[in-house]
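User: Could you go from structure to sequence for me? I need the amino acid at each position, not a summary. Structure tokens:
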């Protein structure tokens, strides 16, 4: 009956219960510090997961059963049942589930921690629209963190966001949406404590944390997405524990080679130039002339051009006569090249007909390749849910890149802008509308790129992906995409970084100086460098038509200051590399907001922890000449830049910091970061 669904026990096992009503099964799985809830519709296939992979266990290429318990820690709670409710205790939290409409309430000694909305919280029989709908109780004053690379403040309460990913070139870091990641995971802090929720889906949708109001219901938050079955994880603990547990649940982060923590150059200008080889070798020379040690260079897609078209895996030998010699030249100077690859093949690509004949593209119902606008032409996306396409991609990576000396891959433009409901993917033998799994293709692409390098003998490949899902960090690092050059965007890029760190992404950064927009002013350029030296990925990258690229020598008159900043970064490299190894081992973030350690600290603070030993205090305001910070609590006190008289923990300090100065950072008395 609409709006009145009575659930009765269907299946019972020590660590699992299933309850059924009107063609719908609600399943509960009990784990240490975690409850998994599934809404399963009779006759509707449950798609696999590629995100849940506890502790970095192997995930099958075709995905993992979303109801698998492998790698998790099932527990056996005492369950008390009567005709109207059943209850149990999980990790000290008391749960009560109402048989009518399956409303879940979780309480502790402080009050209600989590609760489904009154009335109807789940879309059992289309009462709430199409697909999955889930409403939860919202408490005034609660704080929301997570969701991947979402814009705006760190606290996402009273905001609404798209579930989806897109190519957001020139995005406004304060309010653009969506961006490049699709991570339906968030942490809620309220008066009773903290809980995390992860929806295991790749469908398009929307999450709302208080923008929507309805006169007939108490304040609520909501999530909606197209997939009809629903699986979500309710994660218990402190905010820091939830971050760690979510990272563990989704497989953690891959290790990163030490060279990748050094400054890496990047600009489309060099590879788009007719003399790309000379431009790139000139970068190596100028680094040497300016005393800058670089770890590598991101090779933009201009190296693949045929005319004005970019054709992945094609080397333009007019621009770069010998790709092998170029790679050897960089390696001889201690640098790696990271070539750009794209998952779409233009219709005039030399390999297009061959790929189409094999049926390796996303396709229409009649099997013909689906077409999309892409980089000035029409193109088809490779279907990475077809094992043959995966092997084809790996072969191309090995033969065209790895065997020529390119051991690291930059997976770009992989948001798969597929909205057409008539476009299908192979789905590893279970054909599925491609729009239902759009961001999954980016993970599979990145995974194939990494596997190609490993299978070719590369021991620690550096793999980068712009689009990402939960689980991507175990196969690729990322960055925040094509950002805008402005002082406000610098600050909101920082908030974006803190949000990523709370969402399981531990190696990332921005395009220092901004990718698009105007040339950074001298002041903004230096402030961004002061901030960037404390982020894991330290890359200057830009595309500014009519302007010279943003390189370290952008302002010759500032080179003394620039050299000092780059020297500081070089001193930090072993520390950052060691801290990343700790993050891989413990599932804790590499950089993170102070409130993760000190819960009552301002979540919108400009300062943040860089590893466990450094408190970075950047300056984000134009015209400012000091960094003001409230130091976190510490029994030993804090040393400014590791030297001098200690400042007491909890004190408010203002440290002079002009754009030409060394950035402000502290370490605890007794710690020696480097």
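Assistant: Here is the amino acid at each position, in order:
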């Amino acid at each position: 009956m609409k709006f009145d669904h009575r659930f009765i026990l269907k299946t019972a096992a020590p660590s699992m219960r299933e309850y059924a009503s009107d063609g719908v099964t609600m399943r509960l799985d009990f784990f240490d510090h975690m409850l998994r809830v599934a809404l399963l519709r009779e006759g509707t296939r449950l798609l696999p997961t590629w995100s849940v992979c506890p502790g970095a266990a192997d995930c099958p290429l075709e995905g993992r059963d979303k109801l698998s318990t492998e790698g998790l820690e099932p527990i056996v709670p005492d369950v008390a049942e009567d005709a109207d409710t059943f209850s149990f205790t999980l990790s000290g939290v008391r749960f009560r589930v109402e048989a009518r409409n399956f409303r879940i309430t979780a309480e502790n000694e402080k009050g209600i921690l989590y609760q489904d909305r009154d009335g109807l919280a789940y879309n059992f029989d289309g009462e709430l629209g199409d697909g999955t709908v889930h409403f939860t109780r919202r408490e005034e004053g609660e704080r929301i963190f997570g969701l991947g690379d979402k814009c705006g403040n760190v606290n996402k309460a009273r905001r609404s966001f798209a579930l989806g990913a897109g190519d957001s070139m020139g995005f406004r870091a304060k309010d653009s949406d969506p961006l490049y990641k699709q991570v339906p995971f968030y942490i809620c802090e309220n008066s009773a404590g903290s809980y995390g929720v992860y929806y295991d889906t790749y469908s398009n949708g929307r999450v709302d944390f208080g923008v929507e109001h309805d006169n007939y219901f108490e304040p609520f938050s909501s999530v909606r997405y197209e997939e009809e079955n629903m699986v979500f994880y309710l994660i218990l603990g402190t905010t820091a524990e939830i971050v760690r547990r979510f990272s563990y649940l989704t497989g953690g982060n891959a290790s990163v080679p030490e060279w990748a923590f050094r400054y890496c150059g990047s600009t489309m200008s060099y590879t788009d130039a007719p003399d790309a080889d000379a431009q790139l070798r000139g970068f190596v020379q100028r680094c040497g002339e300016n005393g800058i040690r670089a770890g590598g260079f991101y090779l933009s897609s201009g190296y693949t051009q045929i005319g004005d078209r970019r054709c992945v895996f094609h080397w333009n030998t007019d621009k770069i006569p010998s790709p092998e010699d170029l790679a050897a030249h960089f390696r001889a100077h201690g640098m790696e090249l990271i070539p750009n690859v794209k998952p779409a093949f233009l219709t005039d690509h030399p390999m297009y007909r061959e790929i189409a004949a094999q049926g390796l593209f996303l396709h229409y119902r009649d099997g013909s390749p689906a077409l999309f606008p892409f980089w000035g032409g029409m193109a088809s996306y490779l279907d990475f849910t077809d094992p043959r396409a995966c092997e084809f991609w790996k072969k191309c990576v090995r033969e065209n890149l790895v065997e020529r000396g390119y051991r690291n891959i930059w997976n770009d433009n992989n948001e798969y802008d597929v909205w057409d409901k008539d476009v299908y993917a192979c789905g590893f033998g279970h054909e599925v509308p491609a729009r239902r799994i759009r961001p999954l293709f980016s993970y599979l692409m990145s995974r194939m790129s990494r596997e190609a390098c490993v299978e070719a003998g590369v021991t620690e490949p550096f793999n980068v992906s712009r689009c990402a899902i939960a689980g991507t960090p175990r196969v690729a690092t990322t960055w925040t995409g094509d950002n805008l050059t402005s002082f406000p965007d610098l600050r909101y890029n920082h908030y974006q970084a803190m949000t990523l760190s709370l969402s399981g992404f531990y190696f990332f950064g921005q395009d220092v100086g901004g990718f698009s927009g105007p040339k950074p002013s001298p002041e903004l350029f230096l402030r961004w460098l002061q901030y960037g030296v404390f982020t894991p990925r330290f890359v200057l990258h830009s595309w500014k038509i009519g302007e010279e690229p943003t390189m370290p020598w952008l302002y010759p008159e500032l080179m003394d200051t620039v050299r000092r900043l780059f020297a500081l970064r070089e001193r930090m490299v072993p520390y950052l590399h060691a801290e990343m190894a700790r993050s891989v081992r413990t599932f804790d973030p590499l950089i993170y907001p102070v409130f993760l350690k000190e819960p009552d600290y301002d979540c919108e603070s400009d300062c943040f922890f860089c590893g466990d030993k450094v408190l970075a205090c950047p300056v984000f305001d134009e015209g400012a000449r000091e960094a003001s910070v409230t130091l976190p609590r510490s029994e030993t006190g804090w040393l400014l830049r590791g030297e001098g008289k200690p400042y007491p923990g909890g004190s408010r300090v203002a440290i002079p910091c002009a754009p030409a100065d060394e950035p402000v950072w502290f370490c605890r008395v007794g710690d020696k970061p480097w």
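One structural detail worth keeping in mind: The CA atoms of residues 408 and 461 lie 5 Å apart.
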